[in-house]
Amino acid sequence: MSDTFSSTVQCLCKKITLTADAIKPHIGACHCKTCRKWGGGPFMELNCGADVEVEGAEFLQIFDSSEWAERGFCNKCGTHLFYRLKGTQEHMVPVGLFSDDSNIEFGSQVFIDEKPAYYSFADDTEKLTGEELFAKFAPPE
C-alpha cells in the first residue's frame, strides 16, 4: 500500500471540489461527542494534509468548533467537507466523499472513552482516549 495518494472529492450539489495530493490511506474514526453530534455517528475520515485545493470557496462555510479545530461544509447542500486542525491546517475529510476506497484501510479510533456502548467496530485498530490523543500530539514544552 502506498504511503499517500491523490484524489478529488465533491459535495452533493457539486458546488465545492476539494483536491489533495498527500492523502494518507488510513481511516481514522472519532467517537467524541462533538463529532457524533455533527454527523449522527462517529466521524470516519482520511487525513488529506494541509495542502488541499478548494474550488467553489464562495460556497464554503466554516464553523469554529473548538480551540484547536474548525469544520467546513457546503452552504448550499450541507455536505460535511472537512475537520481542519487550526495549528497545522491538516484537513480530515469524510471517507464517504471518496469514490474509490479500494486502497484504504481502517487504522485508528480516537476518543474511545466517549464511544457509546450501542456500536463497536470489529477491526483491530489503534485506540486512544481523548487524554492519550492530546498527549500524543501535544507540542513539546
Secondary structure layout plus pairing:
Blueprint: E1 5-10, E2 17-23, E3 26-30, H1 33-39, E4 43-47, E5 52-55, E6 60-63, E7 69-74, E8 80-85, E9 91-94, E10 105-110, E11 126-128, H2 130-137
Parallel strand pairs: 3-10, 10-11
Antiparallel strand pairs: 1-2, 2-5, 3-4, 4-9, 6-7, 7-8, 8-9
Structure report:
The chain is 11% helix and 40% strand. By secondary structure, the chain is mainly beta. It has a single domain, classed as glutathione-dependent formaldehyde- activating enzyme (gfa) (Alpha-Beta Complex), CATH 3.90.1590. The strands form two sheets. The protein has an eight-stranded mixed sheet with strand order 6-7-8-9-4-3-10-11. Strands 1-2-5 form a three-stranded antiparallel sheet, with no helix packed on it.
Tags for this model:
141 residues; mainly beta; glutathione-dependent formaldehyde- activating enzyme (gfa); 8-stranded mixed β-sheet; 3-stranded antiparallel β-sheet; 2 helices; 11% helix; 40% strand
CATH domain class: Alpha Beta
| CATH-level-2 architecture | Alpha-Beta Complex
Taking pLDDT < 50 over at least 5 consecutive residues as the criterion, the unreliable ranges are none
Alpha-carbon Rg, integer: 15 Å
Find the structural class using helix and strand composition: mainly beta
Q: How many helical stretches?
A: 2
Shape field: globular
The helical percent reads 10-25%
Number of domains: 1
What characterizes the major β-sheet? 8 strands, mixed
Order of helices and strands: EEEHEEEEEEEEH
From the 3D structure, determine the CATH topology: glutathione-dependent formaldehyde- activating enzyme (gfa)
Rounded to the nearest angstrom, the distance between the terminal CA atoms is 35 Å
Mean pLDDT comes to 95
Strand content: 35-45%
CATH superfamily: glutathione-dependent formaldehyde- activating enzyme (gfa)
- The largest beta-sheet arranges its strands as 6-7-8-9-4-3-10-11
Number of strands: 11
